[in-house]
Amino acid sequence: MKSLIELQKNIDEKKKILNLSVENDEPQDVLYQKSIDTDEAIAEYMIHTLYQFCKSMNIDADDLLFGGNVEENNYSDKEIIENIIQKCDEKQLKIIKDVLIAMFSDFNELIK
Questions:
Q1: Lowest CB count within 10 Å: 45, 61, 90, 94, which one?
Q2: Is the distance from CB of 73 to CB of 39 less than 8 angstroms?
């Protein structure tokens, strides 16, 4: 498992790469992927921090995050997607629409 310092360096590196890409007017899809890479690095850092905190405090992460009352619901894929859509504003819905349209032509390939 990586240390927090290594994870922070990874985030800093991803941010530098993203900023350079913006300055160099790279294509939108390249910027989008680099933004995702940066977000993933940040999420990895946050998850690692939560894990270390819970471990040091000798508490379960579910207890900390959800108060120990974790319900397991078996939502269908459609229900999950509808739930996400209902929580989105117009700007977020436009992005979801654009992503779905972009991947729809290759949908059969994505299934494989």
A1: 90
A2: no
